[in-house]
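Quiz preparation item.
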């Protein structure tokens, strides 16, 4: 070897070796070309043709070596050198060094699978680049199929070079003349490097450089800091570049559209370049992407026919603005791609480090698009020819290959993806690219919008439905003799006939008192008369504002009255005092006792059971009023009213009846709040199916024994509740129940471990239905049914492991009834399956909007581009899997749910600020507050619990009784923070906003440290008490009341010297603890736990009052002396 055989390489080839831009030094990248010949051709004949091409093509005499810039080095020394310090060179040998190898797969049981595995291994095998950067394999694929497999390093050949080499092989096989003189061809490698060197000293280089620096340089007009990505694909560059070939299925109709598009003058490359960019922007929910176009640098006629590497990687930014469609991007890209082609010799991808600003360098190119044309021969020596390209992924996440075969009437689309996504995700991405390309082609050709997503369209006939009052009235007429209410302690049931009589008289009184068209407020006690009053209002189309009188603070209640314009309050005797403080006309109701007018309702016999004063046509005519207005947490700090129409409520109720009570009536207990929209299911589905309602007036939190009663009643067929309720119900034992139950669970995420635990306890045939839906979509719009142990996708998992599988959240399933569900980006574009985005809901179940808030209504309820479909943007983060099942995986904003209560942190923060102002701390303008939800991890199959933390940068007097009492006046008890932590410095992200992730981490760390410190104090005190036992105070507790007994409530160790509330106690945990103690015969009131008394003292007092027959052995738990400053 001498120096004259060594030559310089072009910059593009150097970039492939160094990969300094992509941080991939050490990997070699290969193209693979497969040529399949159908027919009886011997392997020897295939090999001879390959040897002749090898001997005649200069590319087989070329190798690559590297040398350090500071001097000559050996190969091993050079490989150990930093990539940026090495330079690669080409070396020409006097003869080809690569042997033509043979491979026969025809004898294998599965030849195709064996060949695929062999190809994958070959593309990962590192070759000696100084000798064999290009190799040819003669292959027998199957008994009747032979051909070649080409393996070429990217620096030697690009896709066009591989295609040209394949053409030479086919031509050689046809002409096959071993005795012909060998005619060698000149390589393009040397001339390309020399021409590039001349180019870099030309004026054109300066113009090209100025163009790209104007786009990516420091003076770029684009404010890169405004480029946003909600779900970035991320930095993939350090992963092993193993590829996965994915092919798109182009239908005949799609192929015809694309063929007409090209014949009409459209650009197929720009079409798919746009479609790839737009799809990436959709799945990342971004407004800009950087795409690579490997534009061929073959300018002369000779160069275009030369087997070599001649690609200039060009990076092109693609933007979209609000309202711009994929077709808009296609039109805008016309000018940009034309200029990119003109200035492509500069190859900005290989000069990225020189020209790009620091902001642009943070954007990692993800996708590339290649476009291959050429008329490949379809026959060779009377055989069919099939040509494929394979490649290990180079510097990108994926490359989409377009094979223009329109000369033969079709377009082929395939892609090489890194093995990071699942095959299903890759297919979904590629199919979405194809769909966008077809949509663009149609829109460009017709110059009008054509929406090719039929799920967005429904006609008014499809969504029309009678108002809920019509269906309710029909149900009362149909199920006259059925029991409507099953009342505790009474032998006789209250029938539909009696209910209709009651509602008739109530409606007459309501008509006398409710003379305007304003809403009425119902203080929703869970009593038969309250349910009947609500149903009567629905039938008479009187808008109801339902609120829970026991959990709604008075100040919040007055805000709701003021906002809704309620003109009448309907209440029961138990709420007399509260009702009289609301400054509204009052209508008291009673079922069996009360004022004389109500007594007459029950006593008077009505001959006709028909609702004589109301006809179906009248209900339909007057159904313009909302059925109800439900108030949820608002982002302004005030509750917001959501108006649900009578038709929307009917659509939900009918769909729920079909899903939950298709075969038997839905007999259900009623124990959830009237101010909670999931309660609608427990009222409407029983009535529409002819079932009964079993109302429980007493709050479930005050009487945990009620839980046991609910499950032992064999006549019940269904229960509507939250996951927290389900957890409590299961804990109270249902082993004696014989008949199956259907649980419809909603309001919050449903852990799979809880589903498994419930099904393990419930009788055979029971079912858990996960119902998802925001209030704005009328109770529920998506369901997922589980009737067997939920699989954790682990074949080796035991039944016990399946039951206790942690961390899995039950899917929300598929759309219920006429609702429509879609996963979208912020621009309203549909996400491919497998990619996360915001959950959007459409259909006749949508709310009318937010009461007295047109701005929020317009922001959250949006129309599709064709204005034919209205969608609600939930703010929930979701994904649709490959089977079409939807999953809810969180929020895109900071709103959260705790035990089914939808809470916006601003409302808690505002309430705290108002209380602090009353304490004289309103002048601290630098105070920062943030309410967060913490989820305490589940353990040992026990469902985790949720709690609220309030973080601040200034101490808050949360230990003050006065502070807590004032706060309870403003927000519900279930919203009260259980943890207060002071965070300094206040965490701020790069955008100047509070860093929620970091703040949550700090709060979680604080919570753990609080427990750890408490445990350490207890341990230290116990050691001290061994020396001074006479000074120690003792808790006398039964032996069974230990940490294991308390584990269902607190998975971690428990410090008995602090209060229940200081341990993060809430109403749900209180119910659990009271119920566990009740099983041991220890009675404890929940209110006794909700104090600042040490938990050990509370338990000691309760156990001391234990009945004589229930006494057990006692253990002595030592406790430290209380500090003087603890109140």
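Solution:
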């Amino acid at each position: 070897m001498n120096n004259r055989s060594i030559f310089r390489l072009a910059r593009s080839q150097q970039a492939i070796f160094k990969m300094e831009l992509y941080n991939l030094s050490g990997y070699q990248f290969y193209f693979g070309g497969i040529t399949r010949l159908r027919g009886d051709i011997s392997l020897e004949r295939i090999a001879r043709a390959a040897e002749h091409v090898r001997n005649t093509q200069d590319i087989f005499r070329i190798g690559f070596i590297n040398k350090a810039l500071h001097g000559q080095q050996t190969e091993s020394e050079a490989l150990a050198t930093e990539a940026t310090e090495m330079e690669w060179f080409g070396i020409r040998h006097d003869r080809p060094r690569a042997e033509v190898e043979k491979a026969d797969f025809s004898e294998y049981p599965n030849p195709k699978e064996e060949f695929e595995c062999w190809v994958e291994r070959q593309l990962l095998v590192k070759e000696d680049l100084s000798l064999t950067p290009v190799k040819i394999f003669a292959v027998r694929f199957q008994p009747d199929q032979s051909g070649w497999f080409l393996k070429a390093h990217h620096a030697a050949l690009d896709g066009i070079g591989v295609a040209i080499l394949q053409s030479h092989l086919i031509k050689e096989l046809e002409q096959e003349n071993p005795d012909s003189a060998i005619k060698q061809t000149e390589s393009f490698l040397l001339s390309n490097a020399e021409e590039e060197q001349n180019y870099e000293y030309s004026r054109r280089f300066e113009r090209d450089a100025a163009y790209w620096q104007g786009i990516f340089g420091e003076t770029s007009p684009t404010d890169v800091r405004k480029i946003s990505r909600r779900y970035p694909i991320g930095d993939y560059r350090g992963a092993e570049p193993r590829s996965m070939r994915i092919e798109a299925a182009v239908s005949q109709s799609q192929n015809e559209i694309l063929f007409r598009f090209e014949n009409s003058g459209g650009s197929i490359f720009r079409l798919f370049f746009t479609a790839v960019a737009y799809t990436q922007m959709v799945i990342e929910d971004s407004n800009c992407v950087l795409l690579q176009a490997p534009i061929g640098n073959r300018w002369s006629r000779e160069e275009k026919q030369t087997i070599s590497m001649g690609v200039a990687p060009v990076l092109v930014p693609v933007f979209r603005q609000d309202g711009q469609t994929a077709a808009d991007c296609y039109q805008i890209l016309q000018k940009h791609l034309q200029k990119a082609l003109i200035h492509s010799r500069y190859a900005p991808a290989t000069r990225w480090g020189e020209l790009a600003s620091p902001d642009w360098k943070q954007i990692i190119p993800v996708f590339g698009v290649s476009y291959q044309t050429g008329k490949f021969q379809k026959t060779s020596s009377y055989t069919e020819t099939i040509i494929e390209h394979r490649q290990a992924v180079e510097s990108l996440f994926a490359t989409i290959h377009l094979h223009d075969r329109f000369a033969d009437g079709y377009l082929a689309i395939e892609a090489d993806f890194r093995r990071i996504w699942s095959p299903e995700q890759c297919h979904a991405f590629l199919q979405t690219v194809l769909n966008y390309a077809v949509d663009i082609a149609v829109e460009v050709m017709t110059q009008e919008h054509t929406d090719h997503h039929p799920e967005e369209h429904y006609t008014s006939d499809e969504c029309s439905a009678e108002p809920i009052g019509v269906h309710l009235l029909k149900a009362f007429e149909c199920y006259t003799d059925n029991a409507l209410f099953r009342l505790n302690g009474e032998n006789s049931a209250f029938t539909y006939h009696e209910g209709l009589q009651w509602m008739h008289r109530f409606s007459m009184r309501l008509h006398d008192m409710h003379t305007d068209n304003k809403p009425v407020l119902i203080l929703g006690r869970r009593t038969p008369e309250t349910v009947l009053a609500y149903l009567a209002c629905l039938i008479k189309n009187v808008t109801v504002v339902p609120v829970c009188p026991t959990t709604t603070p008075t100040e919040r209640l007055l805000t709701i009255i003021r906002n809704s314009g309620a003109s009448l309050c309907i209440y029961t005797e138990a709420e007399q005092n509260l009702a009289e403080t609301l400054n509204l006309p009052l209508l008291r109701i009673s079922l069996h006792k009360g004022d004389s007018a109500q007594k007459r309702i029950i006593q008077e016999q009505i001959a006709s059971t028909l609702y004589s004063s109301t006809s179906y046509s009248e209900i339909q005519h007057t159904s313009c009023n909302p059925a109800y207005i439900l108030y949820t947490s608002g982002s302004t700090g005030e509750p917001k009213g959501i108006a649900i129409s009578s038709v929307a409520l009917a659509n939900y109720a009918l769909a729920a009846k079909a899903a939950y009570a298709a075969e038997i009536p839905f007999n259900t207990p009623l124990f959830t709040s009237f101010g909670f929209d999931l309660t609608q299911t427990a009222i409407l589905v029983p009535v529409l199916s002819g079932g009964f309602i079993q109302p429980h007036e007493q709050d479930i939190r005050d009487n945990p024994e009620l839980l046991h009663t609910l499950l032992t009643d064999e006549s019940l067929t269904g229960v509507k509740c939250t996951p927290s309720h389900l957890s409590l119900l299961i804990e109270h034992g249902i082993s004696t129940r014989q008949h199956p139950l259907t649980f419809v669970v909603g309001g919050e995420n449903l852990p799979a471990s809880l589903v498994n635990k419930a099904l393990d306890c419930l009788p055979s045939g029971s079912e858990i239905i996960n119902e998802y839906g925001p209030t704005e979509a009328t109770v529920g719009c998506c369901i997922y049914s589980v009737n067997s142990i939920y699989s954790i996708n682990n074949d080796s998992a035991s039944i016990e492991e399946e039951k206790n599988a942690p961390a899995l959240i039950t899917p929300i399933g598929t759309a219920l009834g006429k609702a429509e569900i879609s996963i979208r980006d912020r621009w309203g574009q549909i996400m491919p399956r497998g990619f996360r985005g915001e959950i959007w809901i459409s259909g006749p179940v949508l709310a009318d909007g937010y009461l007295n808030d047109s701005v929020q209504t317009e922001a959250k309820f949006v129309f599709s581009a064709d204005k034919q479909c209205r969608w609600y943007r939930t703010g929930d983060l979701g994904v649709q899997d490959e089977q079409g099942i939807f999953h809810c995986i969180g929020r895109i904003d900071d709103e959260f749910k705790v035990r089914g209560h939808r809470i916006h942190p601003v409302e808690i923060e505002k309430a705290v600020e108002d209380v602090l102002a009353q304490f004289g701390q309103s002048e601290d303008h630098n105070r920062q507050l943030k309410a967060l939800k913490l989820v305490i991890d589940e353990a040992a199959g026990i469902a985790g619990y949720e709690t609220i933390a309030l973080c601040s940068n200034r101490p808050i007097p949360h230990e003050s009784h006065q502070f807590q009492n004032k706060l309870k006046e403003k927000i519900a008890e279930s919203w009260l923070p259980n943890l207060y932590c002071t965070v300094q410095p206040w965490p701020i992200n790069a955008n100047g906003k509070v860093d929620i992730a970091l703040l949550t981490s700090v709060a979680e760390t604080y919570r753990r440290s609080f427990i750890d410190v408490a445990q350490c104090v207890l341990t230290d005190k116990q050691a001290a008490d061994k020396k001074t036992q006479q000074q120690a105070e003792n808790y006398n507790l039964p032996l069974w009341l230990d940490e294991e007994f308390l584990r269902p409530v607190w998975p971690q160790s428990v410090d008995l010297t602090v209060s229940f509330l200081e341990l993060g106690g809430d109403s749900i945990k209180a119910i659990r603890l009271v119920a566990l103690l009740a099983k041991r015969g220890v009675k404890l009131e929940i209110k006794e736990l909700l104090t600042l008394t040490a938990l050990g003292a509370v338990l000691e007092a309760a156990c001391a009052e234990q009945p004589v027959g229930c006494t057990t052995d006692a253990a002595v738990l030592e406790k430290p002396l209380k500090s003087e400053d603890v109140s």
